[in-house]
Each structure stands twice: as C-alpha cells, then as structure tokens.
Design a protein that fits this description.
3 helices; mainly alpha; about 80 residues
Length: about 80
C-alpha cells in the first residue's frame, strides 16, 4: 500500500468517526452524556496527575442546572430562532 492510499483511508476514517459522533450527539444526547460522565469520573479523582484531571474536566459534560419548569431536553439556555 503506498502512502497516498493510506492517507486517503485515514481521511475517510476520520470523516466517518466525526459523522458518527455528530449523529450520536444529535440522536442520543442522554447516552452520550452518560458515556462522557463514565469516562470523566475516573480521570478527575484525587491522586491522578494534573494533566489527566484536566483532560477529565474537558471530557465531562457541563453541569445540568435545569429549571423545574424545563421540558427536560438538557439543552439549557435560550433556543435559537428557527428559520422558515
């Protein structure tokens, strides 16, 4: 396999992973949130190196401070106006 073909396969693989991540975030937001929490919690424990705790904080989803009257979509904040 020459270098050009390998580079092409790598670009396609990255595009497929980005697409899968986008679809997962849009279609399954609660599952993605739980997965991010499960990945981040072991990283931010006491005794871990500082770089690992920083990475864990970046992976962790933002805190969900929802209003009790909220519909529960976990997209706290103003909704952007829809274009017709």
């Amino acid at each position: 396999m020459d270098a050009g073909l390998l580079a092409q396969y790598l670009v396609i693989a990255v595009a497929v992973l980005v697409s899968a991540g986008f679809v997962a975030r849009r279609q399954f937001p609660n599952a993605v949130r739980r997965m991010r929490i499960a990945l981040a919690v072991p990283m931010v424990r006491d005794g871990r190196p500082a770089w690992l705790r920083t990475l864990g904080r970046r992976i962790a989803p933002p805190a969900g401070l929802a209003d009790p009257s909220c519909g529960g979509c976990d997209n706290c904040g103003p909704t952007p106006p829809r274009k017709h």
